[in-house]
Amino acid sequence: MSRADHMDVAAYALGVLDEQDTARFEEHLATCWACAAELETMVPVVGLLSGIDGETMTALEQTATDPRLLDRTLMAVRADRRRTRLRQLLATAAAVVVLGGLTAIGFHSVLEDVGPTDVVAEPTVTTPVDVPPTPGSPPTGLGIGGPNEVEGDQVTATDATTGVTATMFLVERDYGTQINFSLGRLPGPRTCRLVVVRADAGSEVVSTWSVPESGYGTNTRAQELELTAATAAKKDQIKQIQVQSVDARGVASPLVTVKP
């Protein structure tokens, strides 16, 4: 490769080569790491030169032979840069003032629209959390302490041995009976099931669930467990409903029994 090819880096960077020389240099550049490295170092310089117009270049050429002209040129450039920065600062300040004025006007308009009436805070809807009830407050659960009464016939029971409490609402449906129930003083961990015992001595498991270690309606977790189940038996066919605890071997033991 000729030495001229290596000397075309600056001309190529400045974009002064014709199409034929540009194509030739690019072929050379693809295989010459030295020219590629040199071209990379010239990129910032080319970016600076791109902002200089023809008149400025002519003035710079004249300053090469006239030192006084160089000083005047440099002073003019500095003054122009100061004026440019000042215009930018003034424009920014004006924008801030206008924006602030518009914001103040908009805020004043809103206040006028609202008028002197008192602002009433709307209630915030939050997700219920498990918190112990305050002393003296009534317990909450299905149909107890809530805004709406639960549909159905209510029956309650507390087992004297286990201490588990149950409140159940039996709703007669076309398909049988819907059972809405709430359990308290139910310790965990354990697996439980709801068994419906019919008057004809038949029985069926209508629901199963697991109780975490904190339990339900306990000192650790005050909230009671609320569930819904259903059975094909009509209300007058149900002899009793029993909540049972099932161990790892599948053996069930009663926790509380409710009789309609």
UniProtKB/TrEMBL annotation:
Gene3D superfamilies: Anti-sigma factor, zinc-finger domain
Record key words, sorted: Membrane, Transcription, Transcription regulation, Transmembrane, Transmembrane helix
Protein name: Zf-HC2 domain-containing protein
Keyword check for Transmembrane helix: yes
InterPro entries the record matches: Anti_sigma_zinc_sf, Znf_put
Record carries keyword Ribosomal protein: no
Sequence ranges assigned to domain Putative zinc-finger in this UniProt record: 10-35
Coiled coil: none
